[in-house]
Amino acid sequence: MMLAKYLIRMSVLATVLVVCGTIATAEPLPASTRPPNIVFLLADDLGWTGLGCYGSDFYETPRLDALAASGVKFTQAYAACTVCSPTRASIMTGMYPARLRLTDFIPGQEKATAPLLIPDWTQALLPKYVTLAEALRTGGYRTGHIGKWHLNGRGQLAAGTLPKDQGFDVSIDSPPGTRGYTLPRNVRSSTGTSFVTDWLTDQACDFIQQSQDHPFFLYLAYHVPHTPIEGREDLVDYFSGKVNPTAIHNNPVYAAMVASLDQSVGRVLDQLGHLGLRDNTIVVFTSDNGGLTMRNGIHDRFTENLPLRRGKGSAYEGGVRVPLIMNWPGVTRMNSVCDEPVMSIDFYPTLLEVATVDGDADHSAAVDGVSLVPLLKNPRHSMSRNLFWHYPHYHAGGDAPYSAIRSGDLKLIEFHEPIELDQDEPVHLYDLAQDVGETRDLIKSMPDEARELRLQLHAWRRRIDAQMPISR
Q1: Which of 16, 151, 193, 424 has the largest CB neighbor count within 10 A?
Q2: How many Å apart are CA 197 and CA 439, to the nearest integer?
């Protein structure tokens, strides 16, 4: 794999010369013959109901709502993990976090009083994996990372783990001196604000401008609406005047963060349109995990994921079910809705198929995801597969280490220690079609189904050599 990855990089260097953040090839490809551009927009901690088109009763997201109306809105899309770094790794590799052994946010957290010890997991996306950016570069794509990465290692694991080591020609995050979401005093966005999301959007639009003569992959990984909860002042003022105390969503600062996200998406789409690129660009928008609702056993009122149970860090739907919009002009149809369960592991094979790029054969053979292109063409297409999660860690969101499987409408969660005093069974079963809020445990009424799902979950863990927590 390492040799194959080296040869890929040498091949790219022989055909694509990158100078000062711009690309130079012998001759720009005619627009009519280029493969589609790819714009991947990743929100941070945005829950399933965090957009207007997903049912928010307070947040305003007109640009994302319009994007969904002109493409496919997925109602049962999942992050591969309940926290960020593992999901981001799954997007970059197409593999389950447990296969990568990157199973918590980097650098993770300890719980000194916990009865279980977490495994010795890998706190970086190792360079032996062929990332989505590296694979697309073999197909002539210019690759740009803007915003959050959160996959680089520290100390002995640092080498080869930054975005430019992992296939990105351009990599830009917040400028030095940024505090939270506030830019340094001498830095302003092109719109005149000191809000970091606006400045990063400038960089994304510049990348599109510089790349317009060639196929490109833009990975714009937002920081919003992750903590600290800080909104742009004008937007906070706007939403403060619209608060409805009886609404499910009623935090004006959080609403301002979501609005700034939506405005950023709108500016990116406008740039594509201005340059005549929109009709040949697939746009993907999703989140790395659910919205944060609880820390250290206390319910935080940042946001809410209802009707889903709980949020970021938990084993329940609120922790892993996320919004997903995919818009591919000429392929996706207006107002399409897809109810098929899909996961972040699926983006890797999907985008390689969109780009007509084969990628590395050895890496692709180990990919866990499947292409979603059939669903983009026909949202009623059925995948007929199981989805899995494995989180051998503790989280401030409140849950103990767990594994889970979704098969059809049934979801089984196996906790590796009970998390509530009144629980004598560490295994729970829910029918998501009838009970999306996971309020009715069917473990005693459907013992045969639970037993079969548990066997399949254990077999999957063995197959990918998942690391398990151990007793102290």
Answers
A1: 151
A2: 37
pLDDT at 25 over 80: no
Residues with Cβ < 8 Å from 168, sequence gap 6 or more?
133, 143, 144, 145, 219
Q: Judge whether 217 and 142 are in contact, CB under 8 Å.
A: yes
> What's this model's pTM, rounded to 2 decimal places?
0.92
Among 290-299, 379-388, 432-441, the minimum mean pLDDT is found in 290-299
Strand 142-147 with 298-299, pairing: unpaired
The DSSP code for 442 is -
Q: What is the pLDDT of residue 399?
A: 80
In this structure, the number of other CB atoms found within 10 A of the CB of residue 62 comes to: 14
What are the tens digits of pLDDT across the range 105-141? 999 988 888 889 999 999 999 999 999 999 999 999 9
Q: Would you state the pLDDT for residue 49?
A: 98
The residues that bridge with 37 in the sheet, in sequence order, are 281
Q: How far apart are CA 246 and CA 248, in angstroms?
A: 7
> What does the alpha-carbon distance between residue 149 and residue 169 come to, in Å, rounded to a whole number?
14
364 touches 386 (CB < 8 A): no
Element containing residue 200 per DSSP (H, E) = helix 196-211
Which residue, 384, 392, 402, 406, is CA-closest to 456?
A: 406
Q: Which amino acid is it at 322?
A: V
Measured CA distances, 14 to 7, 140, 143, 440, 446 (Å): 11, 11, 16, 59, 59
Provide mean pLDDT across the span 93-100: 98
- Separation CA 248–CA 307 (nearest Å): 10
Handedness of CA 330, 48, 152, 5 (dihedral sign): negative
Gap between the Cα atoms of 329 and 272, Å rounded? 12
pLDDT at residue 365 greater than cutoff 50: yes
Residue 337, SS3 per DSSP: strand
CA 329 to each of CA 72, 231, 252, 265: distance values in angstroms, whole numbers, following the listed order: 11, 33, 34, 17
Label residue 10 by pLDDT band (50, 70, 90): very low
195 three-state secondary structure: strand
Instruction: Say how far apart CA 227 and CA 466 lie, in whole Å.
Output: 30
Task: Give the chain's largest Cα–Cα span.
Answer: 69
CA distance 372 to 391: 25
Mean pLDDT across 9-36: 49
